[in-house]
Design brief:
rod-shaped; three-stranded antiparallel β-sheet; 3 strands; 58% helix; alpha+beta
Protein backbone atom coordinates (compact mmCIF):
# COMPACT_ATOMS: atom_id res chain seq x y z
CA UNK A 1 0.00 0.00 0.00
CA UNK A 2 1.34 3.40 -0.97
CA UNK A 3 1.87 5.90 1.81
CA UNK A 4 -0.43 8.93 1.54
CA UNK A 5 0.89 12.41 2.19
CA UNK A 6 -0.76 14.75 4.64
CA UNK A 7 -2.21 16.77 1.75
CA UNK A 8 -3.68 13.61 0.21
CA UNK A 9 -5.30 12.68 3.53
CA UNK A 10 -6.75 16.17 3.95
CA UNK A 11 -8.16 16.02 0.42
CA UNK A 12 -9.85 12.72 1.30
CA UNK A 13 -11.29 14.18 4.51
CA UNK A 14 -12.68 17.19 2.61
CA UNK A 15 -14.77 14.84 0.48
CA UNK A 16 -16.29 13.08 3.52
CA UNK A 17 -19.60 14.02 5.11
CA UNK A 18 -19.68 14.86 8.79
CA UNK A 19 -21.23 11.49 9.58
CA UNK A 20 -18.53 9.65 7.64
CA UNK A 21 -15.83 11.71 9.35
CA UNK A 22 -17.35 11.02 12.76
CA UNK A 23 -17.40 7.28 12.05
CA UNK A 24 -13.77 7.47 10.90
CA UNK A 25 -12.74 9.21 14.13
CA UNK A 26 -14.47 6.51 16.20
CA UNK A 27 -12.77 3.76 14.21
CA UNK A 28 -9.39 5.54 14.54
CA UNK A 29 -9.86 5.86 18.31
CA UNK A 30 -10.71 2.16 18.64
CA UNK A 31 -7.90 0.98 16.37
CA UNK A 32 -5.14 2.97 18.10
CA UNK A 33 -6.72 3.08 21.59
CA UNK A 34 -6.69 6.90 21.77
CA UNK A 35 -9.30 9.61 22.13
CA UNK A 36 -9.62 12.83 20.18
CA UNK A 37 -10.21 14.76 23.42
CA UNK A 38 -6.88 13.61 24.85
CA UNK A 39 -5.08 14.75 21.71
CA UNK A 40 -6.61 18.19 22.03
CA UNK A 41 -5.70 18.41 25.70
CA UNK A 42 -2.09 17.46 24.96
CA UNK A 43 -1.86 20.02 22.16
CA UNK A 44 -3.63 22.72 24.20
CA UNK A 45 -0.80 24.29 26.23
CA UNK A 46 1.59 26.04 23.88
CA UNK A 47 4.44 26.25 26.37
CA UNK A 48 5.58 28.30 29.33
CA UNK A 49 5.07 31.61 27.47
CA UNK A 50 1.32 31.13 26.91
CA UNK A 51 0.03 31.60 30.50
CA UNK A 52 2.04 34.79 30.91
CA UNK A 53 0.53 36.28 27.75
CA UNK A 54 -2.98 35.35 28.88
CA UNK A 55 -2.43 37.10 32.22
CA UNK A 56 -1.23 40.27 30.50
CA UNK A 57 -4.27 40.36 28.24
CA UNK A 58 -6.83 39.82 31.00
CA UNK A 59 -10.09 41.58 30.18
CA UNK A 60 -12.37 40.21 32.90
CA UNK A 61 -11.84 41.05 36.55
CA UNK A 62 -13.38 40.05 39.88
CA UNK A 63 -13.98 42.57 42.67
CA UNK A 64 -13.55 40.78 46.00
CA UNK A 65 -14.62 42.28 49.30
CA UNK A 66 -11.95 41.26 51.81
CA UNK A 67 -13.28 43.19 54.80
CA UNK A 68 -16.15 45.50 55.74
CA UNK A 69 -14.16 47.93 57.89
CA UNK A 70 -15.72 50.20 60.50
CA UNK A 71 -18.61 51.50 58.36
CA UNK A 72 -20.40 48.22 57.65
CA UNK A 73 -23.75 49.85 56.87
CA UNK A 74 -22.17 52.13 54.26
CA UNK A 75 -20.45 49.12 52.68
CA UNK A 76 -23.76 47.23 52.54
CA UNK A 77 -25.35 50.22 50.77
CA UNK A 78 -22.56 50.32 48.18
CA UNK A 79 -22.81 46.55 47.62
CA UNK A 80 -26.54 46.96 46.99
CA UNK A 81 -25.84 49.77 44.50
CA UNK A 82 -23.27 47.68 42.63
CA UNK A 83 -25.34 44.50 42.53
CA UNK A 84 -29.00 43.64 42.32
CA UNK A 85 -28.93 42.06 45.77
CA UNK A 86 -31.54 42.76 48.41
CA UNK A 87 -30.71 44.05 51.87
CA UNK A 88 -30.37 40.60 53.47
CA UNK A 89 -28.25 39.19 50.64
CA UNK A 90 -25.96 42.25 50.64
CA UNK A 91 -25.58 42.02 54.43
CA UNK A 92 -24.78 38.30 54.20
CA UNK A 93 -22.18 39.02 51.52
CA UNK A 94 -20.52 41.72 53.65
CA UNK A 95 -20.65 39.53 56.79
CA UNK A 96 -19.16 36.59 54.90
CA UNK A 97 -16.15 38.50 53.55
CA UNK A 98 -13.92 37.65 51.77
CA UNK A 99 -16.47 37.19 48.99
CA UNK A 100 -16.69 38.32 45.37
CA UNK A 101 -18.98 41.32 44.85
CA UNK A 102 -18.67 41.46 41.05
CA UNK A 103 -17.31 38.72 38.80
CA UNK A 104 -16.02 38.85 35.24
CA UNK A 105 -16.48 42.57 34.66
CA UNK A 106 -14.45 45.00 32.56
CA UNK A 107 -11.42 46.69 34.12
CA UNK A 108 -13.12 50.10 34.21
CA UNK A 109 -16.17 48.70 36.01
CA UNK A 110 -13.98 46.77 38.45
CA UNK A 111 -11.89 49.85 39.27
CA UNK A 112 -14.98 52.02 39.74
CA UNK A 113 -16.59 49.42 42.03
CA UNK A 114 -13.39 49.05 44.05
CA UNK A 115 -13.14 52.84 44.48
CA UNK A 116 -16.76 53.02 45.67
CA UNK A 117 -16.24 50.24 48.18
CA UNK A 118 -12.97 51.74 49.44
CA UNK A 119 -14.66 55.13 49.84
CA UNK A 120 -17.26 53.43 52.05
CA UNK A 121 -14.48 52.01 54.22
CA UNK A 122 -14.21 48.46 52.87
CA UNK A 123 -11.08 46.49 52.07
CA UNK A 124 -11.23 45.42 48.42
CA UNK A 125 -9.11 43.33 46.07
CA UNK A 126 -9.37 43.27 42.26
CA UNK A 127 -8.25 40.08 40.57
Amino acid sequence: MAKLSQDDLLAQFEEMTLIELSEFVKAFEEKFDVTAAAAVAVAGPAGPGAPVEAAEEQDEFDVILTGAGDKKIQVIKVVRELTSLGLKEAKDLVDGAPKPVLEKVAKEAADKAAESLKAAGAAVEVK
